Amino acid sequence: MAPFLFELRHKDSNSSARRGTLTTPHGVVETPTFMPVGTRGSVKGVEVGLLEETGSQIVLGNTYHLMLRPGAEIVRELGGLHGFTGWKRPMLTDSGGFQLFSLAKLTKINEEGAVFQSHIDGSRFALTPEGSIAIQEALGADVVMAFDHVVALPNSRAVVEDAMRRTVRWAKRCRDAKRREDQALFGIVQGGLDYGMRRYCAEELAELDFQGYAIGGLSVGEEPCEMYDCIEAVEPYLPQDKPRYLMGVGRPEDLLEGIKRGVDMFDCVMPSRNGRNAMAFTDCGPMRLRNARYERDPRPLEENCPCPACRRSRAYIRHLFTTGEMLGPILLTIHNITYYQRLVAGARKAIEEDRYLEFCEERFEGWRAGVPE
Amino acid sequence: MAPFLFELRHKDSNSSARRGTLTTPHGVVETPTFMPVGTRGSVKGVEVGLLEETGSQIVLGNTYHLMLRPGAEIVRELGGLHGFTGWKRPMLTDSGGFQLFSLAKLTKINEEGAVFQSHIDGSRFALTPEGSIAIQEALGADVVMAFDHVVALPNSRAVVEDAMRRTVRWAKRCRDAKRREDQALFGIVQGGLDYGMRRYCAEELAELDFQGYAIGGLSVGEEPCEMYDCIEAVEPYLPQDKPRYLMGVGRPEDLLEGIKRGVDMFDCVMPSRNGRNAMAFTDCGPMRLRNARYERDPRPLEENCPCPACRRSRAYIRHLFTTGEMLGPILLTIHNITYYQRLVAGARKAIEEDRYLEFCEERFEGWRAGVPE
């Protein structure tokens, strides 16, 4: 039995945008897709039933956070991430590589793997390619990621190349370490903003025949146009018949630009984090709900949005934030994730109809126009 | 049209427990009932759809908090509390009297009413019986409360009597000020722990023919048995054919003791507040979910509870609290409100079957036994 199947259903005739389906043991993911981030086994503030209602088809969990608390063995005992969290649809776990770069303290990397201190209490841990896979097998997501070496940008060519080459060697070790047949393993392309290195890394990983390919190490401070150019440069070297995942990206416009360049999967904390900070994404651009202009505004955030927040008024949501009610962050998180899901659903439909570029232009025009009075 | 109707359907043959229905413009409330507290237009952390799933039939809003933020006029403009919050079932607002006693600063009371400073920013406000009714008419709940004068216990007889007599005079002014026909007005019996005063107050209010009667000024520091004795003393003087509401009470055992003594309605922040602090109410007594004993516990909080929290493990909920995830407080709030609703539903059924005292004994026995290993 092959529980994984990626089917490329249609390619947009005017761009590199792709419409596909990723079949997993926990169900089908329609691509392009956006994965909300459930770092520690919960998309912050969103009960699983409400998360399903946002239209989310696949959720991301973080290996780094979960290995620290509650620990992978406890999650495994409790039925893996699906049993633990109650989320019944597909899940993906990252490998921990990015958090060792962005969050852990005193991370030291050598060929064997990484040693680091927990950002919570400073206790010491080691993580290797084999260890990351073992943890991800215990967590039991449908898609697991190879353990990669992430470095800051900008950085010297030598440092970027060293990390990229190590990422390839580690990817092979991950592939060899993997035991579970019911999980798909994706390789991660590194190489900073150097197109030659990205190409080399993509070709090396393609030889290892992963079930999907991620572009990692972007959205770490470079300009958006640099990121887009980099995606465009690496895309031709990623196998056409496998899903492509742009890690940690991004804003709504970044999703559309990524899809245009052939990306199928995204994840980002932005809809949830910005929602907690009273910012709502809309087709008219961001709406800051603490603003006094919404004090008596009886309209929903968006007329056509089916989410629970949009069954209330802007004035009510503003009231929740000005009084510090938890329900404000909850409702805007739900709205923003719903917004992202509506955005990728719109993109999927537009690709099917060969009008993806028009769809992008409509969305960009709305975002530029801003929220009307 | 008379939009309000209280029907006493059955009286327990071995206690004063009563089974009734309160019909309101927004639907029927089965009594005995428990009202979760939505102080500022939100039961903290609980989306309205999930609140409906708890089995709650009527929710309380606080006049004091809502008059300060966002202000009664804004709530009225946005469709009253029902339109504002999205809660479609019955609602009740208190009068502000209790918060002037418990929360506001520098409250000064004279015969006309009260002046006080907001606990938020110290700005000055006045509240009179007429003003409280006007605000509650703007808020638009199904049941509104007379403006009462609450004093601390213990207190001198003169102070308690003065406040009780003022409460009666203010109740009459509230009745005379009330204009909306689609709202029921309840009088509030004061009188501290003095049975004579309670009886006098109840009889005076009964003459004014309210649509319901509350027992106020209890659960302010006295012993539970003092409260129970006081309820028992005043109950015979409350009209049999009207609902009785014990304000701000209480623990699960207080609900059962109140029901036994003829109370029909309760409200309390305890299920939500304790839930936010990692305490779950169960038939085996309170469960403190931060406790390490639950670290690997795969069982739900309670086997037979239908709430979303009980579709997870104790270990998962503990993990949410130890990592500071918002979903922990959310899930335990939902569980605890569901627990209270299951408790009053059980009481209603037991009353119908004339086995209310047995029901109480079963519950008390479970609570005494504690959570098994």
Q: If you had to describe this structure to a student in words, what would you say it looks like?
A:
The structure is a homodimer. Chain A is α/β, with parallel strands linked by helices and about 375 residues long. Chain A folds into two domains: about 30-270, Queuine tRNA-ribosyltransferase-like (TIM Barrel, Alpha-Beta Barrel); about 280-370, no CATH class. Chain A is about 40% helix and about 15% strand. The first copy, chain A, has helices at about 50-55, 65-70, 70-75, 80-85, 95-100, 130-140, 155-175, 195-205, 225-235, 250-260, 270-275, 315-320, 325-350, 355-370, and strands at about 5-10, 20-25, 25-30, 35, 60, 90-95, 105-110, 115, 125, 145, 185-190, 210-215, 245, 265, 280, 285-290. In chain A, helix 6 (about 130-140) crosses helix 7 (about 155-175), helix 7 (about 155-175) packs parallel to helix 8 (about 195-205) and helix 10 runs parallel beside helix 13 (about 325-350). The longest helix of chain A is centred in the C-terminal third of the chain and has 26 residues, at about 325-350. The interface of A and B includes residues 74, 84 and 331 of A.
